[in-house]
Write a structure and sequence with these properties.
It contains nine helices and no strands. With 251 residues, the protein is mostly helical. Helix 6 runs antiparallel to helix 7. The longest helix has 36 residues. The two termini are 22 Å apart.
């Protein structure tokens, strides 16, 4: 049935870190435009691993499995793009972004594909169909899902320093951009949880319905690219208009 776990990314978060680092070290010069997102993802995964080790999650084993499933989707897309093979419409803009695009925008394109499109699929890979019938278990899963927001929020200032401003004006807007980034990341993850529920409902109706709903999500993510490339203060605009996408409920 659709929604099967993606290609394995290694043994736990540590394995994910190793695979990301290996790809970053071996990245061809011709693919330098992929470096901002890949490096950001590596640093963020290291932070998630530290949070797991520090006991910040209710079910660290589940978070470990989730991180592997989640990273596997990116690694599969990365490897396909590197080999010149087709990738989803959600990922294509990230791998084919114009050379003049600033690093911040490159990272946003990657976040759009990985959080808005990949993350609901990764959650379904580690939440079994029977799990959805257990309200207490699902509440724990959702709390751990939301705890990732804390890990991401703690990285915002450091990532801004790594990537640099999107425009000269962003230096003045840096404090507002930090708040805006934390806000739109949390908003996107709330929508991810909704979309996971919609995909689960589709999964119960069979492969064809699941593929249809996943294709809808893919189109929504592709359409989001226009917002990410529009000139102006993109981070503040996303904080107001939203970064996530929402699958409409099936009638």
């Amino acid at each position: 049935m659709s929604g099967a776990p993606p290609g394995a990314a290694g043994s736990g978060v540590a394995g994910v870190v190793e695979q990301l680092r290996r790809r970053l070290d071996a990245l061809p010069d011709s693919r330098w435009t992929w470096r901002p997102f890949l490096a950001t993802y590596l640093r963020t995964t290291v932070a998630v691993g530290a949070a797991v080790a520090d006991g910040r999650f209710e079910d660290p084993g589940w978070v470990d499995r989730w991180d592997v499933a989640f990273a596997g989707l990116y690694l599969d897309s990365f490897d396909a793009a590197l080999a010149g093979e087709p990738v989803s419409r959600a990922w294509r803009p990230s791998f084919e972004a114009p050379l003049e695009l600033r690093p911040v925008r490159r990272v946003l394109l990657g976040i759009n594909a990985h959080i808005n499109y990949d993350l609901p699929q990764a959650l379904l890979a580690v939440i079994g169909e029977s799990d959805f019938q257990d309200p207490l278990l699902m509440a724990r899963r959702r709390r751990d899902h939301e705890r990732i927001d804390g890990v991401l929020a703690a990285r915002v200032g450091a990532e801004d320093d790594e990537l640099g401003p999107d425009s000269p004006a962003d230096r003045l807007l840096a404090p507002l951009n930090h708040v805006a980034t934390k806000r739109f990341l949390a908003e996107a993850r709330r929508k991810v949880w909704h979309n996971t529920g919609e995909l689960q409902a589709a999964r119960l109706r069979g492969d064809e319905e699941y593929r249809t709903r996943l294709a809808e999500l893919e189109l929504l993510c592709a359409a989001k690219v226009g917002d990410l490339l529009e000139p102006g203060p993109v981070v503040l605009r996303l904080a107001v208009g939203g970064f996530g996408v929402t699958l409409p409920p099936r009638c």
